[in-house]
């Protein structure tokens, strides 16, 4: 026998407790045994730890290895320059990530402060209800729940009166869920739900899919289907109405709330950033690792040079490396994340997630709280004939008002609040519902699925009016209708439900004033008044934000656990065509490939479990989409882990905030739009940097390898190569401060490694051609004894000038001081060989005849560069389908 399916008496015995609560001494022992009732601690890594982790970056690791090789052959200058690059890169990255981690840690909130438990001083003493800190609650404690209370741990109900729970944080369900004790849980299974559905009227057959849970007590709930079990209440939910008493079955790390993010499949995925920037990195690293041995072997075979060329080979490998890639990426993303936090209160916890946001082309989200508010509103009230009738809303409001006011603990649920609000808007003083005198009320319960208010009118002395409101099928069963009329009204209710409305029926009955108490047996022979339809209230900014996302080339997919009609109605109300609504059960028979095709063309997926959401996100990624998922509950954790970038609002549960990469300022899509635009700006800056630095570096390396085989001396000394790289690297920092052009923000920016490298190859070959043309100019202009040092100076100058041209002509942004920085770089190339520093690194002054020829080479190079840029498309357009060569 599984204890999670045991009767209340068996459960209490297994936990060593009773309905009278624990003895204080037993509670203290259990606290020592099970530990405090707190979520597992998540510490923010220290700055040194983050610094050490950043050494795992592929470029950083290779640069560190090259520095070590240089030190081993006593090339101290080379080793020192590379070491500086490594330290600066790691320091910038560590500072940005540490700042984001601290901001995210500040979002953590307590699940609850105190809880009301029954405790006894001795076994014979009477139980006393007392407030204890939530972290002192232990398995076996008997907890009392009242409206507004947060559930302190996982509970099994022993008693309940009209108890409903807000479980949106756990399941995403908009409306409160009725909870009630079940004597034999093994005989219960979830009933089908819909827009007008209420809890099952009786215990159905067993649920074969249920399985025992795990945790500190033997009765921890099953994570798959236990959220629907009426006798279980979970940490992270709150009491909407009614009251109840339950026994604690799991605390701390054993609760469903805490264990959700430790489920299988919740490991961190490879994101779009990993696939793009790191993909480019690893391709280049392969070339870097091959370059030194190729240089050594070629020089040994053709020029008879030995190990003395190793520093030059290392310098060539470093020349191919975009050394500033980690620095530029980290600085750009950190600046974007900081601006988002400062201007829009959006916190980016994982810096690469900002790049992923810029590449997102599909956003998956739940309906509740993003497209709709967490409350229903009245859409219509129809008479029994199907025509609009305001009197139906009037009588529904009478029922809501007096069943709430006469309740043991007055508290309106979401449907009652919506009905009362709508009635108040039509009668602002509320006199319509208050003109009656209350007699009694029969509150809602999940078996009857309706509630009844008994009133009397001053104009009808000696008579009482029963006003009944509840699920349509339950009310119709109690109405005096013939079979044809009952079927007609049931069909009307079904059509309303199919249109996405939650349907309530209202009926009345006149009775002679009774002196005995009213009971549910009096709810018969009713006269149907009509039907009330309610829909989810649309979020205020959702329609505008959805339109903005569509204009930015982002498809929106709605993955919800709600009824298909409700989900479709919410989308239509916001101008989002739902198309064919797909139920999750229909996807179970599909292969991943077929589901991917279906997910591409469909917008709404209803009745989704957490596993369904994660699978849909995964197949979309496998089809090449960069996916974002916006979720806020425990049920969203698998999808938050499966997508490229996980997003959550600030009200999300702790475990969802921990799993998310981005925390929005508010629970709406406007904040998401701001984050996407910031991500595109950062992505455009990174793409522009890669385009420029790879083109220049590739051209220089091709020319250097060619010259090394043609010349009787090294084309550049290792120190000169590194000084040139250092100057170019310092100038490239300006790219991190550029503002993107409007064209770069219109569409998702995806960096595909092979296409990036294919695109820069043309520019690299063009750069190499300019370098080789400079060789010819130098061979003609320099012919004296200083030919080697002059050659070094001439090529050094030409390299920095061509790199300055590339920075200006291939830039994708504006501002940021790039033209000014390029000008400084060009002046450095012209003046450094003429300065006192020139002879120190092996360079001499050039003859004046060299400069006009160099100007001609640069003019031709600039013209060819401009032509090639126009032929391959503007950088800010690349990545859009109309421009097939994305960068």
Question: How are the SSEs placed, and which strands pair?
Answer:
Elements: H1 8-15, E1 22-23, H2 24-34, H3 47-53, H4 58-72, H5 76-105, E2 114-120, E3 128-133, E4 142-145, E5 154-166, H6 168-171, E6 177-178, E7 232-233, E8 238-250, H7 256-259, H8 272-303, H9 310-320, H10 325-344, E9 347-348, H11 352-359, E10 362-365, E11 372-383, H12 390-405, H13 414-426, H14 431-434, E12 437-445, E13 450-456, E14 463-471, H15 472-477, H16 483-498, E15 502-512, E16 527-538, H17 542-551, E17 555-559, H18 564-573, E18 582-583, H19 584-587, H20 592-601, E19 604-606, H21 610-622, E20 627-630, H22 637-642, E21 645-648, H23 654-659, E22 662-663, H24 669-710, H25 718-732, E23 739-740, H26 753-781, H27 787-809, E24 813-814, H28 818-831, H29 837-840, H30 850-872
Low-confidence stretches: 107-112, 188-224, 263-267, 874-887
How many helices?
30
The shape, in one word, is: elongated
Give the radius of gyration.
35 Å
Distance between the termini: 61 Å
Helix and strand content put the structural class at alpha/beta
């Amino acid at each position: 026998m599984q204890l999670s399916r045991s009767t209340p008496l068996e459960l209490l015995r297994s936990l060593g407790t009773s309905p009278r609560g624990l003895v204080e001494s037993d509670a203290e022992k259990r606290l020592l045994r099970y530990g405090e009732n707190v979520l597992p601690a998540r510490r923010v890594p220290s700055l040194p730890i983050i610094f050490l982790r950043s050494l795992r970056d592929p470029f950083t690791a290779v640069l560190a290895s090259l520095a070590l090789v240089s030190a081993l052959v006593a090339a101290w200058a080379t080793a020192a320059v590379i070491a500086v690059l490594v330290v600066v890169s790691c320091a910038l990255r560590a500072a940005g990530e540490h700042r984001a981690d601290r901001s995210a840690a500040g979002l953590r909130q307590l699940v609850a402060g105190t809880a009301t438990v029954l405790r006894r001083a001795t076994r014979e003493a009477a139980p006393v209800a007392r407030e204890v800190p939530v972290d002192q609650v232990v398995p076996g404690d008997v907890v009392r729940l009242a409206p507004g209370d947060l559930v302190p741990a996982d509970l099994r109900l022993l008693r309940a009166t009209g108890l409903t729970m807000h479980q949106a944080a756990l399941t995403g369900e908009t409306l409160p869920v009725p909870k009630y004790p079940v004597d034999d849980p093994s005989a219960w299974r979830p009933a089908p739900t819909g827009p007008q559905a209420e809890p099952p009227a009786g215990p159905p057959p067993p649920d074969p899919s249920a399985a025992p849970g795990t945790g500190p007590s033997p009765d921890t709930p099953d994570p798959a289907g236990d959220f629907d079990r009426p006798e279980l209440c979970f940490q992270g939910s709150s009491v909407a109405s009614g009251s109840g008493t339950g026994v604690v079955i799991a605390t701390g790390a054993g609760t469903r709330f805490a264990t959700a993010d430790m489920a299988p499949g919740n490991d961190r995925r490879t994101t779009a950033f990993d696939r793009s920037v790191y993909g480019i990195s690893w391709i280049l690293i392969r070339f870097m690792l091959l370059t030194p041995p190729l240089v050594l072997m070629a020089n040994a075979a053709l020029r008879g040079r030995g190990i003395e060329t190793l520093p030059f080979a290392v310098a060539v490998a470093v020349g191919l490396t975009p050394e500033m890639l980690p620095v530029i990426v980290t600085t750009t993303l950190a600046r974007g994340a900081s601006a988002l936090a400062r201007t829009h209160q959006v916190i980016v916890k994982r810096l690469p997630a900002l790049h992923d946001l810029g590449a997102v082309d599909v956003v998956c989200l739940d309906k509740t709280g993003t497209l709709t508010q967490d409350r229903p509103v009245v859409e219509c009230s129809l008479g029994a004939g199907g025509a609009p009738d305001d009197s139906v809303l009037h009588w529904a409001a009478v029922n809501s008002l007096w069943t709430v006011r006469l309740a043991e603990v007055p508290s309106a649920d979401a449907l009652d609040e919506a009905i009362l609000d709508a009635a108040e808007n039509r009668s602002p003083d509320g006199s319509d519902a208050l003109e009656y005198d209350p007699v009694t009320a029969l509150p809602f319960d999940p078996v009857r699925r309706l509630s009844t208010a008994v009133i009397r009118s001053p104009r009808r002395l000696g008579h009482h009016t029963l006003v009944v409101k509840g699920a349509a099928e339950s009310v119709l069963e109690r109405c005096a209708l013939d079979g044809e009329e009952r079927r007609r009204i049931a069909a009307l209710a079904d059509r309303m439900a199919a249109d996405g409305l939650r349907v309530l029926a209202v009926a009345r009955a006149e009775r002679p004033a009774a002196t005995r108490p009213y009971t549910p047996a009096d709810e018969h022979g009713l006269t149907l008044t009509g039907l009330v339809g309610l829909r989810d209230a649309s979020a205020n900014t959702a329609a505008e934000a959805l339109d903005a996302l569509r204009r930015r080339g982002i498809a929106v997919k709605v993955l919800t656990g709600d009824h298909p009609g409700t989900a479709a109605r919410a989308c239509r109300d916001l101008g989002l065509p739902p198309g064919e609504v797909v139920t999750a059960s229909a996807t179970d028979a599909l292969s991943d490939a077929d589901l991917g095709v279906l997910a591409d063309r469909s917008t709404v997926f209803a009745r989704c479990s957490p596993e369904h959401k994660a699978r849909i996100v995964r197949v979309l990624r496998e089809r090449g989409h960069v996916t974002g998922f916006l979720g806020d509950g425990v049920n969203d954790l698998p999808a938050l882990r499966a997508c490229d970038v996980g997003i959550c609002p600030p009200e999300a549960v702790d475990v969802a905030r921990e799993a998310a990469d981005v925390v929005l300022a508010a629970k709406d899509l406007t904040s998401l739009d701001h984050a996407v635009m910031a991500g595109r700006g950062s992505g455009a800056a990174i793409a522009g940097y890669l385009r420029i630095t790879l083109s220049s570096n590739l051209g220089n390396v091709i020319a250097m390898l060619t010259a090394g085989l043609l010349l009787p001396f090294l084309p550049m000394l290792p120190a000169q190569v590194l000084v040139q790289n250092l100057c170019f690297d310092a100038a490239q920092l300006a790219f991190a401060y550029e503002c993107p052009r409007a064209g770069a923000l219109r569409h998702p920016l995806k960096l595909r490694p092979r296409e990036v490298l294919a695109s820069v190859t043309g520019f690299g070959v063009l750069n190499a051609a300019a370098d080789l043309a400079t060789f010819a100019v130098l061979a003609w202009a320099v012919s004296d004894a200083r030919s080697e040092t002059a050659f070094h100076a001439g090529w050094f100058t030409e390299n920095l000038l061509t790199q300055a041209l590339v920075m200006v002509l291939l830039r994708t942004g504006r501002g940021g001081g790039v033209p000014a920085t390029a000008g400084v770089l060009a002046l450095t190339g012209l003046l450094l060989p003429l300065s006192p520093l020139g002879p120190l690194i092996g360079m001499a002054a050039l003859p004046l005849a060299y400069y006009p020829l160099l100007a001609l080479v640069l003019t031709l190079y600039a013209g060819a560069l401009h032509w090639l840029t126009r032929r391959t498309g503007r950088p800010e357009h690349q990545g859009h389908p109309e421009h097939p060569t994305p960068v």
